[in-house]
Design goal:
By secondary structure, the protein is of the alpha+beta class. It is built from 16 helices and eleven strands. A hairpin with a 2-residue loop joins strand 7 and strand 8. 40% of the residues are buried.
Length: 410
């Protein structure tokens, strides 16, 4: 075990993979200072991370955390009763209710609408010029898709992106900004649910409201005495689920599209091979997400009892951080792991999780990335990075991995 690593001062914000390489080589488990300055345990090697992701003794429920540890976002109960804070049986119940909307078969039905959205965004760019590909393409594509799926009106989509940006990468100079964003989101979802109850539509959110209301609930139970053992949602669970689907449904895909395009532009031989054979795109997505995925860390976990990870005993209730990024670059699992190689078998990566908490929206994220890249390859054959890669700015977040902007010419 290595001790007293400060993840911020050690350079994780600016050079995450170099830091993770060093940490992974030094020891499998590190005592660290977490994102908010509180203590945590960091796990970096593939086998240990994979095992920990599926370990039922590592709880996502913050009620099992010791005081003073890192707990993640500070959200009100109406937004916090979501899958990222739950263990079975509540996790099983809610995932079953919403999981049917994100099966590979159901998601595949979105292929044509996603491609239409991609083409519409590329039409707006014109045949040649320059742009920030994040703002013009990588961000509006997934936010449009997930908002259409949920039934969120057009006028609120830009606001929601701004709110989530504040949560994922808080600005130290604006300590109140995160609280203001949470208040704004709570008001937004309260009104959205009320509107959907008045005028249901053919969308996922209306379906979830129907599950909630038609089960016999009154609309007044908050935390939900009707929880385990029935196909029902409490009011807080309904609102939290809507928040999570919208937040996670676009946030990770924005980052993945951006880093995938950057990887291709920085590896012209791989780009040429993909242009020559676009049928390789579905497999290529697995290498994109392994090589530079959208999350550096999995959601924090709390041991229900003392657990041993690679010979290190972590006391019950302390915070455990699992580095997906370090695991996916572990040469013990992926030979020459720091090399971007679309010919590699990247299956088994942990970028989208493992076990019962595997990313619910993984099929949608894969499909959106595949279609976004296919459209770019077809329609912008001369796409190039505009400027020095060293000048690119990344989100100042220890958890999320993504570009603030991606300037290109075409």
């Amino acid at each position: 075990m290595s001790t007293d690593q400060d993840l911020v001062t050690d350079g994780l914000l600016t050079h995450p993979y170099a830091v993770y390489d060093r940490l992974r080589d030094t020891a499998p488990v590190h005592r660290v200072t977490g994102p908010d300055g509180s203590p945590a345990w960091l796990v970096t090697r593939y086998d240990d991370v994979r095992e920990a992701l599926a370990n039922p003794l590592l709880s996502l429920d913050k009620r099992h955390a010791l005081p003073g540890g890192y707990k993640g976002f500070a959200l009100p109960p109406a937004l916090d009763a979501n899958l990222l804070n739950m263990d079975p049986p509540d996790h099983t119940r809610i995932r079953r209710l919403v999981g049917r909307a994100f099966t590979t078969r159901r998601v595949e039905q979105l292929r044509a609408p996603i491609r239409r959205t991609a083409d519409h965004l590329l039409d707006a760019l014109g045949a040649h010029g320059g742009t920030d590909l994040i703002a013009a393409y990588a961000a509006p594509l997934p936010i449009t898709v997930i908002c259409d799926l949920l039934g969120v009106p057009d006028g609120h989509r830009r606001d929601f992106r701004a709110w989530t940006d504040v949560l994922v990468a808080p600005d130290p100079a604006r300590p109140q900004a995160a609280k203001e964003a949470v208040v704004a989101m709570l008001g937004f979802f309260t009104q959205l649910l009320a509107d959907k109850r008045k005028e249901p539509a053919d969308d996922l959110l209306s379906d979830l409201i129907a599950v909630r209301d038609e089960s016999g609930s009154t609309g007044n139970d908050r935390a939900g005495s009707d929880r385990a053992g029935s196909d029902r949602l409490s009011e807080d669970e309904l609102m939290s689920l809507a928040f999570l689907i919208l937040f996670a449904g676009y946030e990770n895909t924005v980052q993945l599209i951006g880093t995938a395009v950057l990887a291709l532009l920085q590896h012209p031989d791989q780009l040429a091979a993909l242009r020559a054979d676009p049928t390789r795109l579905p497999a290529a997505v697995e290498e994109f997400v392994r090589y530079d995925g959208p999350a550096l860390l999995a959601i924090r976990r709390f041991p229900l009892e003392d657990v041993t990870i690679s010979g290190v005993t972590v006391p019950a209730g302390e915070t455990v951080l699992l580095s997906l990024a370090a695991a996916n670059r572990d040469p013990r699992r992926f030979p020459d792991a720091d090399r971007f190689d679309l010919g590699r078998d990247a299956t088994g990566h942990l970028a989208l999780g493992h076990g019962i908490h595997y990313c619910l929206g993984a099929p949608l994220a894969r499909l959106e990335t595949e279609i976004a890249l296919a459209a770019l390859l077809e329609r912008l054959p001369d796409l190039k990075l505009d400027g020095d890669p060293g000048d690119l700015r990344w989100r100042p977040s220890l958890r999320a991995r993504g570009l603030l902007a991606l300037p290109v010419t075409y």
